[in-house]
Each structure stands twice: as structure tokens, then as C-alpha cells.
Amino acid sequence: MSSQSDNNPDVDVNEVMELLFSVSNALAEQAGKAVFAVGGQIPLAGLTDSGSNSHSHVSIRWDTGTGNQCLKASLPVGEEDVASQHAFTQLLSACEPATFGRGNEDVLDESYRKAGKLDAERFSTDFNPYEYGVVDAISRSLAQRDHYGIRAELYKLNVYSGPSGMFKAHVDTPRATAQMGSLVVCLPYAHKGGQLAVRHGGREVVFDWAAAQNAKPATIQWAAFFSDCEHEVLEVTEGHRLTLAYNLFWVSDGPTSKTDNLNILEPESLHFFGALQKLLACPSFLPNGGVVGFTCTHAYPHSAEASSAESLENSLKGLDMVVYQALKRLTGSVRVTGIIDDRKDYYYRNEEEDSRITPVPEDSYTIGKFAVGTTVGGPVLIPGSGEDNFVEPTDPDLVWDFQKQESKETPLYRRQNVAWLNHIPTKDTPKELALAFITYGNQYDLDYYYSSAVIIADFRPEGVRDVSQ
Ligand SMILES: O=C(O)CCC(=O)C(=O)O
Ligand SMILES: [Fe+2]
């Protein structure tokens, strides 16, 4: 095969492929190291047998539900301390069986989650994650930028008891666009098992707290992870594993554009940044300009009506933020958007058989042509089919507000090539429901578009390449 493009003899395809390859390699390498979960431990300082030091214990006070009565338990529970053991037993019995979200409802299913819980409205604690530097530590390792901090909001007390307490693999339901993660704090109480396994992008981090909880001095251990990470509490075989669960939110501490404050020049980002810079400077890469794309490695609520493009940009996590910032610096134009996954769910109307819907052929997804439009939640990329340069929306009522072309009756939108720095969204890319729509088959059926979050940049070579070279 010739290394010259058929259309343009000055374009060196091999050179572009090599440069693209080194960009995706740098990205893969960094993705393999990107932090998605962090943890630590806090010895309860000044622990005395009498437990008189306020920082030697953690107290939980809860409403009994009868009158205005409030009870208190203190951890760790003294081995000889009958009163504190009694209070702990009362705390256990105050807990309700823990449900979990399935679809739109909260269900109780002990084969999935066997635990007790107290909702935050029913209890308070003197443990404060800010006081011990936990929230600062999370900001430093997960935030990837200055002037953008993290706020922790107490959510629940969980109790997993031996011999079979556990919580199978799940992803926490985000309650707001600004929600970026979860913090789990393990309180001092002896138990066995109950490891917390956190997974993302094919990698796993296991927090095994039992050994320290069975030893002295008493310690508090914690783990924080991004909200799209799958996690699981393995079976607690003995004792009680008590955790405080917090929701974590992004907070801005200044009026500056938050996404401008990423420290892109961190050593681990430099390799990728340099490779991208070389690619964009190569005269054979998109000689007339075009769209550069990156499929996000984390999930974002990008199609929800409440999510705006601005808040999406500010809520990028880990590697996604690094890529966003690098593209912003190098192209001057970048945005976060959704891309509709067409392989199963994208259809176009077959002209001849007007009442039928025909699936787009599989390979139309991989040719890399996408049209940019707008749906409920903001701009999206829609894969095109066939060889046309314009694509007709399946149904203008469902996918609307496209940059309309001449004809008002049949709004068309232009397809563009996207050069992907990593890959187009795959089966394993985080997806979310973008739109539900009615298909026109023999009967009215509901069908769905699923979309994945992507970062795209409009690339104009004249802004990057020195024309005198
Ligand atoms: O207790 C834990 O370690 C995890 C709790 C959890 O996953 C949750 O409350 O959603
Ligand atoms: Fe969870």
C-alpha cells in the first residue's frame, strides 16, 4: 500500500498513523495509571482506656423514633465496658434493612445487599472528614485542578454483619450533576472479610480494612472513588463492619474558568501532551482541518435535561480532564458532547418502505463520519450512514434543533470526519439513555438511543502549524 493518500499526494498517511498511534499509546499508558480510587487511614490519637480524649472515639447519636429520645454509642467499644457494649447493640437494632436502587425504585433484596442502615436524617456523628484532612487528600488526588474543591455530604451509616453481610457490585446513583464520587469511612469495630473492591476501566483496587480493625490502636480507614466506579462489599464473615457513606460534590472556590486551571504540565501528562502536539503539527494530519475526538473514560450525566455543556466541562474526571485541557490549549476550541450509539439503536427510515425502520449497517459506525446536532441534553454527534454528505434526522421531533440546512421541510445536517485520539465509543464505553422515541413499525413501539460522552475539538491547522516550515 502506498503511504500517500489517493486524494492528496502531499499527505503521508503512514506518518499520521504513527503519530496517532503514539498519541493513543500515551493515552492508554496514562489511563492505566489514572487514579480512580484513593484511601487512607487515621489512627485515633490519644486513645486511652477511659476513652476520655474526644479524639479517641467516634460517637454516633441517633433518634429512636419514640418521642424526642436520642441515644449515643461510642466506637471503639471497650472490651470490659458493658454500658458501651449495650449502647452498640442498641445502635445495631436501630438500623433498618438497607435497600438499593433498581430501575426507578428502592428494593430490598438480601441476595444483593445484606446490610443495615441509618439515613443521615436520623443520626449525627462527631467524626468530621474535613478535620482529619480526608477531603483535602481526595481533592489533591482526584480533582486534577486548582480552584476546584470537593465537598463531602454525609449520606448514610451502613452496617454489614457477619456471617453474611455484603453488597454486591453496583454503581452509586448520582443525585446531582455536580456529584463526583463517594467517600466510605470505616469506623473502628472488629470484623473479618468485608473488603471493598472498586473497579474502573478494567482495573480494580481492593480496600481490605479488617486486619487493622482487629488490631490496636483503633483506626479509621477510608476510601473515595469516582461515582461511575463499580464497587462491591465482599462478605463479612464475622463481627460488624460499620461505614459512614458520604456523597462527594465538586465545588468551585473562585470565579475563574475552572477548566483553565488544570495543571497540564504534571510529569505524567507531558508525554501525552507532547505526542498530541506533534500530531497536530504534522502537515499530513487533517490538512484542511476537521474534528478531533476522544471518547471519555468516565461516565457523565450528559444527556439529562438538567446537564449543561458548561457543567459537563467542569465535572470531567481524571484523564478526561487532561485530554480536554490539552485540546483546549492546542486547538483553542473544545467541547464535551454526547455521541449516539447507533449499532443497535440507530435507525433511518427506509424511503421505499416508508412505514419501516431499517437498522444502519454495522460498518457505518466505524467510517468515522458524524454529524453534530442538538438533542434534549445538549449537542450530540450522530453517526451518518451511506455516502451522503448530509444526514436526515430520523424524526425531527425527537432529534431537533440541528443546524438546519436550506430546506425547512427536511432538515439535514452535515457529516464530518472525526479523527479519534483513542477510539470511537465501544460496547464497554459508559453509556446512558439519551432519548426514548417511537418507532414506526407495524405497531407503535418505544425505542431508545444510548449515548456516550465524548470530547471534540474543531481543529484548524493554521492556528497550530507554522506555515513558513
Ligand atoms: O460500606 C461500604 O463499603 C460501601 C457502601 C456502599 O457502597 C453504598 O452505600 O453505596
Ligand atoms: Fe455504593
From TrEMBL:
GO terms for molecular function: metal ion binding; oxidoreductase activity. Keywords: Iron, Metal-binding, Oxidoreductase. Residues 146-252 form the Fe2OG dioxygenase domain. It comes from the Eukaryota. Belongs to the iron/ascorbate-dependent oxidoreductase family. This is Fe2OG dioxygenase domain-containing protein. The lineage of its organism: Eukaryota, Fungi, Dikarya, Ascomycota, Pezizomycotina.
